[in-house]
Amino acid sequence: MSVASDKNTYLPKGRVDLKIEVKDSLNNPVSADLSMAVVDIGQLGDRSQKGDICSYQLLESEIQGFIEQPYYYFDTSHADRYQALDNLLLTQGWRNYTWKELARRPLTFDYTFEKGFEVSGNVKRAITNKPIKDLNITMAILDSIRPIFQYSQTDREGKFYFGNLNFSGTQRLILSAHDKNIQGKGMISVDSVMWVPAPSSYTSNVNVSEDRVFAGYRQEVEIEHGQLKKYKLKDTVMLNAVVVKAIRLPNKVEDGHFRAYSTPDKVFEITNKDYGYGNVADYIKDYLKGKILWAPTATFADQSGEPLILMDNVIVDKAVLKATPLTQVYKIEVLKYSSTSQFGARGANGVISILLKKGNEHTEPLNPLLSSSNRSFTGYYQARTFYVPRYDVPDTGPKKPDLRTTLFWEPNIQTDVEGNARCSFYNAEGAGTVEIRVEGMAKDGIPLTGIGAYTVE
Fold first, then answer.
1. Which of 4, 322, 452, 457 has the least C-beta neighbours within 10 A?
2. 336 vs 422, which has greater pLDDT?
């Protein structure tokens, strides 16, 4: 893998264009997934002998103990690297495997392969604490872009399980235990979905260099700060008040919720006084008498048949309404007659549209039921984009010093059909040497590393 910049020397805040090329020994293009970091080594120091993906996969992960300079054993400029590697393997307690002995052992796994997140728990009787079997469990994750609904049953020990859940960020997890008549039953307990990080005594061994490069850079930064102080410039610009006048359009809903219909026939806003009903099903059953009936099926008073139930524009059944606390609901909108034409035959008996609260509008239920659980659940990390300033756009504001040590970071780079990848960024203000380090994996599993450098003057 080769990493090359379009120039050898750049100006501070200058644009840098990089080209990454990955080929095999026959000069054929290689498809690879890469990650790249660009840092000012004048401030971070020389890290050329530190480990990378190659040293980790081929050496560090195979032996016990800490290796001070993993890359040393892969650097072809060191003639004694094989002797050093031999000494390392002897002192770190590495031994060869006895393949015959391993072949006689059955293949076992201490932990099963994970396919997404898992939620499990049990349901017991509140008084006798005995498990309840064959009880219906409804699970809803409501805050995601696409709400997730799954159903399960308890086994003879009262246990339930949901697997292969994939979502990002912190979400609201709702579980409800009910019988075939959708009546809450038992006391539901959820296994821990929290984790406590293990304590770490790690201390960074990266020391900021006090060499001439950094001294010059620090001097430049002090000059910039002096200029800001001299002219009484601040990094915040206070704008004058702006008054915007407009005419509100009639019958236009502007509450941040998308609707697949225009204007509902009836709207029921949920307030604090409604929270005593517990869940959506009880609210519809007890409060909306004369408007919507719920015995034994949900029907409109002047219609026959069962209506279409939507929750944030997703079709759900009545079990989900039983599992959804009213504290999570923003509005309930009802559509009848011609308002449901866009739903076709499914909306012939009307539509109940339930709109959930968004973001920090969520509140905890006042009187939680024993047969339901409502808690936060953290999924995969919500990815964010690394900030890169743009110096090709005129900046009319006060000039601020650029003190970045990491100039660019891109965790996901994929080569094209020719084995190439390109990216661009802008330098900071400091002069010195900038290192480009690219690591990753080829499609066939071979680890890849590439290093480049340029100068800022």
1. 457
2. 422
